[in-house]
Amino acid sequence: MFVAAQELRTHGHADGATAVMQRAISWQLERCSRLPVAFVDRMLLARMLYEIGSWSEVSQLITELTCERGDDVDLIGFAGALSARTGNAWAAEDGLATLRRVTGAFRFGRHLIWAARIAALLGQHDDALNHLRGAFARGAPYGVDLHTDIDLQPLANDTRFRELLRPKS
């Protein structure tokens, strides 16, 4: 349902997307009502709530999850993207700087996908595209999900972005 809602939104069916996302959230809330609740399930719920703009609920979930895994690149990136969306440019830039400094364990470019999202939300299109290229060079898949990524939507009309995501072969 989550992916279907993203596809609907991306392709201009906002009302249908909202209805499907609300169903997905209800389903995920039901799953999360049973203890213990896995980290990944709470992250998914946060992503769903983020898609509909429930910033305070997302912020609360991110805060709780950060207490468990404060150095998780997905949480750092998610917090940075939320900051960009809610107008806290300083915190967004701080998250972006943290992601740019990530070294060590091979993360398949996830940290740079998040950096691209934050940069796109901040209007830094050149940086966002460079981060995406860096992510792909580190093993991030050219998945179909990138064209539906709500945080990369500021790049949707950029021909460089469309070319970057275009299948080649």
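That was protein one. Protein two is written in the same sequence-then-structure order:
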Amino acid sequence: MSILPFDDRDGVIWVNGAMVPWREAKVHVLTHGLHYGSCVFEGERFYQGRVFKLTEHSARLVASAAALGFEIPYSVAEIDQATRDTVAAMGFPDGYVRPLAWRGSEMMGVSAQSNRIHLAIAVWQWGSYFPIEARMAGIRLETSRWRRPSPDCAPTSAKAAGLYIICTLSKHTAENRGCQDALMLDYRGQIAEATGANVFLIKNGQIHTPTPDCFLDGITRRTVIGLARQRGFEVIERAILPEELPSFQEVFLTGTAAEVTPVGRIDDVTFTPGEITRVLMTDYEALVRSGS
């Protein structure tokens, strides 16, 4: 199946306050965000025309920029409205939103304090993040050799573009070995997350998840924790070691793109998607489509 490249599509992209024809939404090759990673972004899904947790995403975008030392020249409310306008202009009932902000081209070097800050918002149709057959059976992960850095080595609270290169390396390696994603440990050797999603592990009816002290405390992660507690499940946030994996019965991932995705295997340890995972998948699907 052929896939349209992302630089050659119909539609519009919101750029610095204006709707720009999709193919004309370009930046110069000498852009600081490209050379030095001074770029932050969000991933959002909309259902029936409504962006789920929109304001939380817009606020996190602004906070990520501040963590990288720059200020987006639009308020959270203005970013929210620009997102709604772009979703409406594209006309899809369901889809994905990618806002991103970056330092421009005025200065080229490590220091770029005078560079203009740009903001763009793109919208496209995007179905299941993982192949649907693999997702329903439980996807397969392998542990990456790359680790999430310490908070004193990188701005780990930010959704910053530069932090994702180890995710790309990890996911490529995993895919080349027949897996759908990779499990990443942190700098201490503890379980952290997948390459673009948080991880939950279930043992004897209790839901365990790593403490997000060096990786993103995902918006979907927090949402699913809330849904689980509403159901009366105990959710335990703690340090989890990879040696504990065989003691868990169910594992699932959460993320805006991944939504709630069961895991069937990590390295040589197998899991069976069970009742708790199915309940939370159903509850999350109902919530995002509820309009609440």
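The first helix runs from residue 32 to 36. Keep this in mind for the problem set.
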